[in-house]
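We read letters as residues; the fold follows as tokens. Both lines appear below.
***
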Amino acid sequence: EHIRRGASASFDLTINRQITSTQSSHSFTMTKSLIRTASLAVLGPLALYTVFWSLAVIPFFQRHFLYAHKFNTLFWSDVNEPERWGFAKHQVAPFYLKTPDDNNMYAWHVLPLPLYHKHEDQIVQGASSETVPLDITSTESFRLLKSDPKAKLILYFHGNAGHIAQMFRADSYHSLTDTSSYHVVAIDYRGYGHSTGVPSEEGLIQDAETLVNWAMNVAGIPSHRIVLFGHSLGTAVASGAAE
């Protein structure tokens, strides 16, 4: 009897030791797992941060980080069809401007909607058969801008990333033209959308100056009837052009 009790007590003690050992092992495993997770949580972002700043010192990546000009939706949205963004047929005339350093700068001329409705038949009939007219000055839209001695023009400079109609930009053009008498001409800077070239600070300022010169010397709009409108990055561009 004493032997059986002793054996039973010894067996219970062994089981308790095994349970304690198992619990300790499980606790140690959980601790290691928590330490590993915490390390990844700290080291992961640190590694990404290090990679980001390592790339940021390279001019190629600096340009893409700053201007984000390749982040656009051109592969599923055709900016040569402005009607996709709620504009009336031929209310918007896409065209190109040539910069002094021989880049092609893509632009939209958005007619004020009240003026469009007043001359809709002439605008549609006088629209170019080309998707993007080679000569914007031959269109009825341009004639309405140039021949009006009271015409007011907003030159719109968008922010970084995307293209001329991406995000809320088309909504901005609507808000500026749906109930007013203002014409809007918006551009895609070099390297953005369908515009050629590579963006740079000097290049974007030159693009803006090209548009201002076109507005004054080709469209014939005096400076007191021109508004420079910039959003985000475009505010710096507009300020540079104004200087």
User: Anything to note?
Assistant: The helical segments are 2-56, 59-67, 113-118, 120-125, 140-147, 169-177, 201-218, 233-242. The chain has two domains: 1-57, 82-241. The chain is about 50% helix and 15% strand.
